[in-house]
Protein 1
Amino acid sequence: MGDSKRIVYWLRRLSEIAMYGWLGTLLLLDLGLALVVGGLQWLPAVVGVAGVVAVALRRRHRARGFTLMLGLSFGASLLFTFTGLDGVPGMAETGALLVLVIGVLRHVEPVRHAALLACLALVVLMSEAGARDYQSSGLVFAFLLFAGWSTAAGVGGYLRFQQERRSEAVHSVRRAERLELARELHDLVAHHITGIVVQAQAARTVAAAKPEAVAPALDAIAAAGSEALTSMRRMVTVLRTEDDADRKPGVVLADLRLLTERFSADGPRVAFEIGPGLDDRTLPPEVMTTLHRVLQEALTNIRKHAARSAWVEADLRRHEQRLVVLRVRNFGSGSDPRVSRLGGGFGLVGMAERVEALGGRLYAGPSPQGAWEVIAEFPLP
């Protein structure tokens, strides 16, 4: 885990602790107020305890807990109305409702259900102000509760907007890359089919003069057809999972080296090494496509976010005969949290899913040596 992720983790933990501390303080104030006012004023304190429990369980039972909390609060207000006793809105009860409003507006699907629950919360809060009119202070309570609800609704709506905007951006990136993959699939099929047709024509030409040459040609045609079907299945799997692409079949390992040389011409120097046991026949076309795209994305991120890197190290190696690993590392520049794993650039979102669709995995983050690295692993057939 990088330093930035560790800081974010602890900030979230501390904010949770602060929230529970705030609700606990409000609950103590409710208990003190119940001792002073007496009567039914103990009821808001009990509802406040239920509200703290609902907040604690909000991730597993968000809508259900919020609905139950609305029912308890509204029922308490009705009881105050029917008895005619004075009361004060529960502070922990109100605080829990406002926290739950933020979560509901941010997470509940569809959005119309979230909006409906938020509006019901406003009705419940206003009923608190009207039913618990302690010494004719209902108007003041109504104003304060409306201000609190407006703030909570604004925060929840803003968080929902940011979440929806990012989801739409990721979806747009994937949709655009699917179109690129469809073009790539066409070229891949054409590449294999062309080879099959050429071999079939050659076999027919030599069939009369050298019949013994037909059997090897048929074996080659069968092998090419099997390879084409395997590549097509893997590529269609990637298409179905909405992934990326940016290279056409027929481009070779030399294009990876050419990509690093072009980057070095106007950026940090790149040392690129291809390990033993790897050549253009070793790697399937769809793996070559993704290797090229991952390398391009990694170098693009370095140019955008770490242009002052001293140098870049890239290598492509084969491990244990059935695993090929591409690693790109840049040195001399601090890691940028904007390109942390799947958290910033949308290119990495598509890259990770494409790599995983081919049975591999992608990692992007700081290395133990202090460099920023991108690692893509692919199993070989």
Protein 2
Amino acid sequence: MLSSGLTLIFSMMGVLNFAHASFYMVGAYVAYTLVGIVGFWLALLFAPLAVGLLGAAFERLALRRVHKFGHVPELLITFGLSYVILELVQLIWGRTAVPFTPPSALQGSAFTIVSHPVEGMSLMLGKAAPEICAAASCSNFPLTKAFMMVVALLMLVALWLLLTRTRVGLVIQASLTHPHMAEALGHNVPRVLMLVFGSGCALAGLAGVVGGITFVTEPNMAAFIGAIIFVVVVVGGIGSLAGAFVGSIVVGLLQTLPLAVDGSLATLLSGWGLAVTQSTPGYPLLRLTMAEVAPILPYLLMVLILIFRPKGLLGTRED
């Protein structure tokens, strides 16, 4: 959800927004405040709009002034904005986590995975009776995460249709590739770019609302997820919406699947009949399990992508 908004801004404007995760955090906190006034479902609508307006105002008042000086000033001003947002959030809502709980409709589990201990079978049930879970191993999939998956897919499809099947998307792409021609046809190119930046921030705000009820809403939530967003964008291909989707899936699998593997290279070598002891060269690295190295695997993949395919998995090559 976050990488789609970041990809939209970069592909349309060429701006790598370092404050994107901060707008995600603002979306969560604004929704937390609105929930007590208008309820969750209206907050899900109004919070992204508020974040989008903040993003559009920032582009109009600050980012546009440095756009003509190149990418480095743009990176610096968005980097500085992330610190300003962090301090403002701590001043307004405090330094501790806030109790942003999901609504009653999103509480509970979407389905239950039941693994029979004897037959080794796994079944996915809508609801598992307590007596079934008493005789087998049950794992509940939270309804909030299922809601997150649905919203992310709807966001991706809607964004793709907007950019490729509507006149608005055509104007946006024309404003990027042929700005003078777009202006000659009567389109306000600076306003179009402001709307693009605001829309990307609104997508981050929407992700913040959904992420706020799923995870913990606290001032470090932007730093926690900010770095991995850029990994997703680089792996998928900077500027590619389809690449953002594929990169999200790949990075998500790299972050989760190794956690279930308790083996290491030492275990693998021992299985091949090679003795691995503390005197073996590189033993501290060989003994690390997949679960222990899982957090760094996405970053290792990003390094390999930058070495062997700098444009990413689905990025377009520029001649």
Protein 3
Amino acid sequence: MFMSESSARNENSERVPTGISGLDEMLGGGLLSNSVAVVKGAPGTGKSCIGMEYIAKGIRDYGEPGLIITFEEFPRQLYRDALSIGFDLREFERRDQLRTIFTTPAVFLREIQQPGGIFDRTIEEISVKRVFVDSMTQLERITQDPVELREIMYTFLNGLLRYNITAVVTQEDAYITGNMSVAEAGLSYIVDTIIQLRYVEISSSVDRAIFVLKHRASDHDKRIRRMSITSQGVRVEEAFEGREGILTGNPSVSRRVRRAEEFFK
């Protein structure tokens, strides 16, 4: 099979483990080094939990300092949420292994374009290797023009990748269940990896689902798997078996399982 030079380079490039074992398995070992991954989902699906664990595990398990950029929550809220899944971000900050920037999208966009700005200084001061941005959706408040917004997205993400860092960003999904909307402002074309989170109703109970929609120039697990949020972090579990229509939010028993049940009646 023909593989371009860039594809071959990406396929053999270094992997950056998220530290979330089931997710790293889905990603073939982790994210591509010096890339951007977007985690998409409705409110409460676990986007921020994945981002915070990515930063915390990078510091704790791999000795890679991190930077969190938040447009939505005050740092104290992030610290509280991180503690609930087993990670003490304040302690990482005290050790000078983590920095948190809370600002507006417009202000940070200006800063990221300025050599020697707060972004550059922070990256250099603690040798940041991992960045988590929560959330890209807030950039949409800068302009209503889709062409201009796409340029803003490009500028923002290219600014992140000026250094040898690997970034995870979140984006709000307007749909709780059912339809997906992956191409807002062209973000799906810009990023290297898309991780989609969904709510799924099974037997009158709501579960979380996770799947990898895109992993540029790299093979990945195509299955839709269960995901849970625990006091020890995010847990990616086995695939939904015996169900079809998972992405509708209200799956049914698969035809194969129904036939088997009818056979054994």
Protein 4
Amino acid sequence: MPVISKILNLTHNNNLTKHEQLVQGVIESIEDGQLTIGDQLPSINTMVEEIGYARKTIFKAYEELKNRGLIESRQLKGYFVISQATNITKRMALLLFAFQSYQEEFYKTFRKEMGRRFQIDVFFHHNNLTVFKTIISNINGKYGMYVIAPIQNEKVATLLKNIEPKKLLLVDRYLNLGPGYSYISQEFEEVIYTSLVRLLPEIKKYNKIILYFNEESDFSPISIKNAFQKFIDEFEVNGSVKNNYTIGSAKKGNLYFALGDTILWQILRDSVRNKYKIGEDIGILSQNDNVSKEIVFGGITTISTDFNEMAKRAALHLKGDTVTKLIMPSRLIKRSSL
């Protein structure tokens, strides 16, 4: 096969290790058009017979080519070329909830920090278990690294354990996969509870606080609802939880805690129409900060982690070779909406 001839020619290059000769031989064969997408590489046994290198050396070279996203292994069939992007150092999959503003912020920073030598393919599961399973089934084994915002579900944990620990980084939400897996996640329950306690004097200004909580639309963990319920029970605050906001229902004297941005903007629009003054006639509290919330109506009070910093930490982890276990701090950002 041409690829074997290419590798044999490189064995005379004393500047390359055996591993590098194997990797470079395959890459040059792809670049020369001798290997194209769908072509099968020589089996490890064939490479041992033809090249004379140890099985573990050949296996390691094939694993590097897999990590770069150039080849994939198919059970009982062998190794096949799946990409001709030989200029890519590593190909990675980024699986997020949805392209909401804060996750867009994460992606842009992550993309910048990783640099051009890394190909990042983005997928969205929308907190849907069936969609999540389908995506994982389609991408597993085709990337060198997986950065995933998981659904906090035991079935998802079982599914993700099919990915090698060193190739998987969990972001945003925590999921216990065991000691070998890495995560850079948020904590919700304690952060929400303590933030509400700090805001108690402002909350007491209003007749009622309403939390809009919908796991399907805003992808929020149940721990936020639990923290809210604990707060209103312990401090005897008049509060309630609703799944959705009804257009036109904003009332003077209420404080609205909107987790999703869609509901936030609906409440703000109704407030403008009713000529309510934000921070006096009605109060607004939101989750996940962004530039617009810093600016509109003199600023919206938020409880948020720093997604830019999370992205930087994720990029740093991927460029290193260690296990990362990090819970990102969140903070209460007080603005004039209360």
